[in-house]
Task: structure prediction
Amino acid sequence: MNITKSMLLASLLAAPALHAEDGDWKSIGTGIYCEDLATYFNLYAPFIDEGLKWNVEIEESTTTPGYYRFQPYCDQTPMAEAMGYADDTYMYIHAEDPEKVWMVDGEFYDSYLIYSHCVAETGWDENPDNLRDYGTLTDGCISFPAKCIAVVNIYDDDYGWAYTNINGDFKVYLPGNATVDDDYSIYVDYSYCAPGDEVPVTITVGSAVASVKYLLEPGSPLNEEGELDLDMHRVATQGTVTPDGECKFKCPARGVYTLSFVTLDADGNAQKGKAVNIYGVVDDDSAWKSLGLTTYHEALIADHYEMDECDLEVEIQESVATPGFYRLVNPYAEYEYNMIESHDDHNHYIYIHAEDPECVYIENTPIGADFGFGEGHVTSSVAKALEQGFTLDEIKATGTEHGYLKDGVISFPDYGLWYGDKDYFDGYFYSKGNHTTIAVPQPSGVENVIATETAPAEYYNLQGIRLEHKPAKGLYIEKTGTDARLKL
Result:
């Protein structure tokens, strides 16, 4: 097609305002959506399996019978799994005339997927090479001819239009006209952590699933694509049966775990699988001593979301048994962009291994923050290698990126730290964190602090929040000048 992205706005603006108001719609039940639009991109790289179909709730306009809308890429759909997150945008189809069905232009996933039916109603010109056939509504099935719909080709330097629905399989079955008989899908809604390390998980499976099995194992092994490694056969043969619906899974100790599921058919054969990370976060507080407040130069989230770097004042603690092993207490509790407002039920920590000042690394751990794509977690190149079975000596010998502790400051190189959001590709890690530093207070004297008599005292709770007055009871932090001490 000799039409480029420069024509996109013209075609969208030429289309009349056809979307009804939100209040003008009513649900008519669950229908079936058959995908053959995004499959165009399989020509460039594996994207989404062909022949997929799934349930969608279909709504009909109360003022225009035969005008339908639905959310093809919402949560718990194969497309949401393929893209790593859901898109609640509606797709609109005019079927008032069953012999002249057409689809309204649609933009999904922040314009990553832009579809346009090549008909006059959507602003296409009268060039016979551009215009294509309308769809039809027959026996409750809306279908479209092959190559009648265009998609913006993001792989084209000019972002031109290309024909999709290549196989002619893009269909929508209205409620009551079809079922998905071979639906062995599984969707897992979960949290990274929870009080008492009993992590809540909700399991939703397809109608054809006979049973579900799971394995909970320490660590986070990754495949060559950097995704959690899932051995469906091993889960099917060694796993434990679990019901679907709401469940809780107990992490035996502090650290990262891989929770793997498979769905089984009536003969016990594994069909579909899913693996996610959950974390044990319960720790023995008596095993740590406070070094007071310190400066955490935040460049990890800033780098990931292209925001300004900033300094966060947080409490730092050191292991009693392992000098040089530190943790930051609720490091993002006061971070401006964190959408989690409370840490009352349990604390979150960033664990930093600096026992060897020449090879510093951060553990794989949740950080108690959400920036719009679910809970965040962090790790480091060294921690990732340890989870793959390498020893620390082997890792150091290979030159894997790691941090350093020098002159009381921990710093990390480019690509040494990694960040991921739970609801974006299940927390897939991206290398980030250039400029991240953590100041380590130097222990000296009783309680590892030095009081400064000339400076007025300031008081903080254990989450690093400044208090107006000295607490009458309980643990708190007293800061005098540049020094701090934990007091009771």
Notes: The longest helix spans residues 8-14. Residues 298-435 form one domain.
